[in-house]
Amino acid sequence: MPSRRAAAIGWDAFFDAEQLLTRPLLVVIGDKPGVFGAYRDGQEIYGRAASKDKRLFVVEGTSHYDLYDRPEPTRQAIEAATEFFGTQL
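Now predict its structure.
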């Protein structure tokens, strides 16, 4: 049985996105690309997702990490999620 660490290292968020991501999808990113790659990855997963009902929400002037701990970008992301999933769920 593989270890949890091996499973986490081998996990690929993009695997088969074209077939698996079929439900409504909201991708939230900041517009400041960083070394982590979340800006690029967010755009890629949005583009590859099979969902017909998807939204890419870009928080201007924000990096990936700002979405975790800055109140204003976090508020914008929460409002986008509340609106999007309020109509989808």
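The radius of gyration is 15 Å.
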